Amino acid sequence: MGVAKQQKGSRRHVWLQYGVWCFGFLLVLGTICIYHFFGIRLQGQKNIPSVDPESFYVAYPRKYRFVLNQPEVCKHRDPYIVIIVPVAPRDVEARNAIRSTWGNDSLVQDGDVLVLFLLGLPSGSDPETQQLRIHQENLRHRDLLQSDFVDSYRNLTIKTMVMLEWLRDHCPQAYYAAKVDADMLINVGALTQMLLRPTQHHSNYITGLVWYGNIVIRDPSSKFYIPHEVYPYPVYPPYPLGMCYIVSMDLPAKILHVSRKIKPIFIEDAYIGLCLEQLRITPTNPPNKAQFVVKPPLVYDRCYYSDLIAVITDSPAQLISFWIDLHKPGPACKEASHTPLD
Ligand SMILES: *[C@@H]1O[C@H](CO)[C@@H](O)[C@H](O)[C@H]1NC(C)=O
Ligand SMILES: *[C@@H]1O[C@H](CO)[C@@H](O)[C@H](O)[C@H]1NC(C)=O
């Protein structure tokens, strides 16, 4: 009896020792793994004050509501293309410039093109007064969509996602949607002509100036800085530049669906790229890439501008003056031999 007990006791002792060794081994292994994992990241950030990775994401709980909405507008108008212009709440000058130029309904053929502005909530000084003005502006023009997140540069991705929600929920019968920045001069006629080409795709289609292999900025002083822990790869997947891109109407729902798997970063167009990659949809350059211009020549040229679809302007005043010049009578290009850039 006594011997058996003793044997049992020593066996337990061996097992205990074995257990302690195992535990110790796992502890060391774990420490090495954790060190290895974070060590690589820490190396790159030795002298940089640590930044909260969360600050590179946006809050998109999919619960934002529209404070201002035009829920019936697509039923009344049945547009071919819906152009949504994300714009800061206080930037009424930019909205008016677009309303009086390329966004003016009465100048666009048969209501085929619907132009709406998308705002978040005003912030900064006196948001109540700003909000009151926005309401009045909407009573006059009935072209504002406003969602209840705080409008800011860092929240632009939220704006894009809310735009996609609106398109999915309120205008699925249109063929295309475009996201256009408020400083863009758009040739709506040329845009619709481009989309009406018989070779044009009606699904899984996204076009604009496509950026391929755009390098992820690792310089913390840059506006576009993204740390490794937020996006580990050296380049973004291809995506169309945020200033102006056009999607077929099946894409808003598809992008929103797949976005549930991808935490939204604040760089709006790069985030669309991440969603497209997940959907295995490749953005396409427009038939004529030269018609989309980020950096126009310093000197305005009527002939050159007359052939463009989308071009950045410096100010609302410049947008208006170019548009007026482009719409005065007479041929845009002087010599008959002169062909616009192709
Ligand atoms: C739109 O164009 C029409 C006709 O040229 C003009 O009467 C109207 O004032 C314009 N609308 C705006 C908001 O400028
Ligand atoms: C973005 O919007 C959310 C929701 O309204 C808000 O809590 C957050 O402060 C905003 N972020 C910035 C940088 O404005």
TrEMBL record:
Gene3D superfamilies: 3.90.550.50. GO terms for biological process: lipid metabolic process; protein O-linked glycosylation. One of its GO terms (cellular component) is Golgi membrane. It is a single-pass type II membrane protein. It is an enzyme of class 2 (transferase). The chain crosses the membrane at residues 15-38. Keywords: Glycoprotein, Glycosyltransferase, Golgi apparatus, Lipid metabolism, Membrane, Signal-anchor, Transferase, Transmembrane, Transmembrane helix. One of its GO terms (molecular function) is N-acetyl-beta-D-glucosaminide beta-(1,3)-galactosyltransferase activity. Its EC number is 2.4.1.-. InterPro entries: Glyco_trans_31. Pathway: Protein modification; protein glycosylation. Its main location: Golgi. The keyword Transmembrane applies. It is found in: Golgi apparatus membrane. Belongs to the glycosyltransferase 31 family. This is Hexosyltransferase.
